Amino acid sequence: QVLLVESGGGLVQAGGSLNLSCVAEMITFSSRTMAWFRQAPGKEREIVASISWSGARTDYSDSVKGRFTIARANSKKTLYLEMGSLKPEDTAVYYCAADSGFQAWPPSAYGHWGQGTQVTVSS
Predict the structure, then answer these.
(1) What integer pLDDT is reported at residue 24 of this predicted model?
(2) CA nearest to 97, candidates 27, 43, 44, 49
(3) Are 116 and 6 a contacting pair, CB within 8 Å?
(4) CA atoms of 3 and 71, how far apart (whole Å)
(5) d(CA 108, CA 110)
(6) pLDDT tens digits for 3-47?
(7) What is the DSSP secondary-structure string of 23-35?
(8) Mind listing the pLDDT tens digit for each residue in 44-65?
(9) CA distances from 51 to 5, 32, 107 (A)
(10) d(CA 29, CA 57)
(11) Which residue among 17, 50, 59, 75 sits deepest, i.e. has the most Cβ atoms within 10 Å of its Cβ?
């Protein structure tokens, strides 16, 4: 059983920062590519950033590149998303996701999901 629990969401003004965390209850965290997704009201879920199992590789969507940073601490089984220069269009529910495969880059498929944390950016 894989359990992912996000935290750190909230309300912030445009231009501000927020840091999200995702604690993973899984034995194989250090072997999984991880990612952050988001879903805004009325829109499809989109990938924001991903990080390989060792942290050596990262990838970002064009909409957040240069503003967000994904990181992980395998010893703590925790995934992070540092969000800066936030914009109202960043408002969404943010989800942590784990690859179903092991040591795959690109990932095979994100088969494990957290319940999400709300991020609201006011203008």
Answers:
(1) 96
(2) 49
(3) yes
(4) 19
(5) 7
(6) 999 999 999 999 999 999 999 998 899 999 999 999 999 999 999
(7) EEE-TTGGGS-EE
(8) 999 999 999 999 999 999 999 9
(9) 17, 9, 9
(10) 16
(11) 50
